Amino acid sequence: MPLEDRPTKLEPGDTNAIGRMLGVLGDEWNLLIIQQAVMGAARYTEFMSRLPISNSVLSKRLRMLVGEGLLTPDYATTARSRSLWPVLVSIWQWERMWVTEHQELLPAMRHARCGRLFSPLMRCTSCGATVGDNGIELALGPSGQWSRFAPTATTRRRSESDATARQAGLFPQTMSVLGNRWAAALLVSAFLGTTRFTDFQAQLGIPPSLLTERLQTFGDIGVLSAVPADGSERAAYRLSGKGRALAGVLVTALQWAQRWFAAPDGAAVLVRHRDCGSLLGAELACDRCGERLCGAQVDVTSAEAAGIP
Ligand SMILES: [Zn+2]
Ligand SMILES: [Zn+2]
User: Fold this and answer.
1) Which regions of the chain does DSSP assign to beta strands (E)?
2) Separation between Cα atoms, residue 195 and residue 128, nearest integer Å
3) Cα 253-94-82 angle, rounded to 5 deg
4) Which ligand ends up closest to the CA of 279?
5) How far does the centroid of ligand 2 lie from the alpha carbon of residue 288, in Å?
6) What share of residues in the chain are helix, strand, coil (percent, to 5)?
7) How far is the CA of 104 from the centre of ligand 2 (A)?
8) Closest-CA residue to 285 (of 36, 153, 50, 90)
9) Which ligand is nearest to the CA of 114?
């Protein structure tokens, strides 16, 4: 088995699977490059012509993706990058459904098997039932200390000039929730049931100014809704419908991360299917024909609109 097709063994006490995932997926260019690679781009010039990206940004990202085992040195996909398609499909779906700024830009997805436009359903592989946005229960696992969510510094976006750091803008809101450590930690914490400022602060060890800023962003994009303080009740921040709808992205991303990055002390986040109580092995299915989806059978209908040939 080639090296990139085996899970990476993490060091004891080091960055956990979530942190390693954020280092890779918390960058919009990486997502877009992987998406193109999965759709068949395999040469430098193909990535250049399919993406509105500069040479320096593309070179850096390709180097990093090769280093992380998502591409081979000649830019072919690996088992690690091919298995990312459920995350990409889930992100696409969420942006299509919930980010209204987009609706004209992001085309629908077609299931090649049944030929129809579809939305992905998440199913529990233990009981076979569809898992709704409220159907998951999160708990922290043995490697789930928040300090270990910090991505290893593989992309240094801050040090790049504005021009090269400019993103394609296809997944702006996904990047607001997955694009950095504190945002992703805040999202996981909200799914764990945390609602109060002081509880987020105590749990995550996040500086109050950063927490204020993240809560503001989450509020602005409508992922959390703030319930103002009322007498003895302190203000609360609860996941909105749009926030809950991130369950698919969160579950597929966690599943990918914990498949490919193995901490010696165990999982960082455990996800259970609320209805049947088992640890959730999630699969995506087509809501039109009910078949389990596989990556090669998902097309976007109007490629041009998404900048995808
Ligand atoms: Zn189940
Ligand atoms: Zn179908």
Assistant:
1) 8-9, 109-111, 117-118, 120-124, 136-140, 224-227, 236-239, 261-262, 269-273, 282-286, 298-300
2) 31
3) 40
4) 1
5) 5
6) 45, 15, 40
7) 23
8) 90
9) 2
> How far, in Å, is the centroid of ligand 1 from the Cα of 132?
11
Q: What are phi and psi of 110, to 5 degrees?
A: -115, 140
Q: Report the amino acid identity of residue 262.
A: A
DSSP 38-55: HTT--SHHHHHHHS---H
Q: How far apart are CA 181 and CA 144, in angstroms?
A: 13
Residues across the chain: 309
Q: Which ligand is nearest to the CA of 294?
A: 2
> pTM for the full model?
0.90
Query: Which residues, at least 6 apart from 45, have a Cβ–Cβ distance to it below 8 Å?
Result: none
Cα 161 to averaged position of ligand 1 atoms, centre (Å): 47
- Give residues whose Cβ lies within 5 Å of ion ligand 1: 124, 126-127, 273, 276
**Ligand nearest to C-alpha 274:** 1
Quote the ligand 2 centre to 300 CA distance (angstroms): 13
Among all bound ligands, the one having the nearest atom to the CA of 281 is: 1
Task: Record the tokens describing residue 178, joined without a space.
Answer: 């997955």
From first to last of its 309 residues, the chain has per-residue pLDDT tens of 566 678 999 999 999 999 999 988 888 899 999 988 988 899 999 999 999 899 999 999 999 999 999 999 999 999 999 999 999 999 989 998 998 876 566 778 899 999 999 999 999 999 999 999 999 999 999 999 988 988 765 444 443 433 334 456 678 889 889 887 889 999 999 999 999 999 999 999 999 999 999 999 999 999 999 988 777 777 899 999 999 999 999 999 999 999 999 999 999 999 999 999 999 999 999 999 999 998 777 776 644 444 443
Q: How far is the CA of 265 from the centre of ligand 1 (A)?
A: 25
